[in-house]
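Hey, weird one. I pasted the DUF5815 family protein sequence into the form twice and got a warning about non-standard characters only the second time. First submission, copied straight from the form history:
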Amino acid sequence: MSQPRVPGDDENTLELPCGETIGVGELDLGMREFACDCGETHAVVMDVHPPERFLPDFLVEVLREAIETTSEEMPEFDTPHLLGVVLEEFPDRVVAHDASENADVGYAMVWVTDFDSRRLHEVVVELIVELMEHAVSHADDDEALSSFESEMIEFDVSEFVDQYRTERDLEAEDPYA
C-alpha cells in the first residue's frame, strides 16, 4: 500500500502534490479548496468533514452498514475511509497529514489533492460506484450484477455531482449552510 507523502521534519508545513508548501495552520475547518501559488486549485478535506459532503445521507448509511472497518480508532465508515480510497487510487495526487498532535488546527487529519474540489467529488463518486459494483459481483447473483451494471450505464457522475452540489449548496460561502 502506498504511503501518504508528508513533510520531512517540519510538522507545521505540508508539502503539496504540486511541490509547493503550505502551513497547516492556513487550512481552516470551512475550507474545501484553495488557490495555490502553483496556479492550480487544490481540494482540502479534513477528518471533521462529513462523508455527506460527497454522498447522500442514505448512501452513507448503507456504506456504514455494509463496510466493516478494522480500525479501533475509526470503527465506522467515515471521511477518512473515503479519502483513503482516493489516496490508494491516486497516491501521487493526494497528500495526507496527521495533525492529531497539533491542538492549534482543529482537525486530526487533512488531505490536500491535486484535484479541485469538484473533480475530487467526481473521483469519490466514481470510486464508490466501483466499490459497489465489486460488492455486487461477490453476491453470486448474476441478475443483480446485470441490473446494477445496466443502471450504472445510465448514471452520469458529472451530472450527479452537479445536482448534488446544487442541492447541498456546496459553493456557498458558509460551508455549514
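That's the output from the first submission. The warning seems to come from a hidden character in my clipboard, not from the data itself. The longest strand covers residues 41-46.
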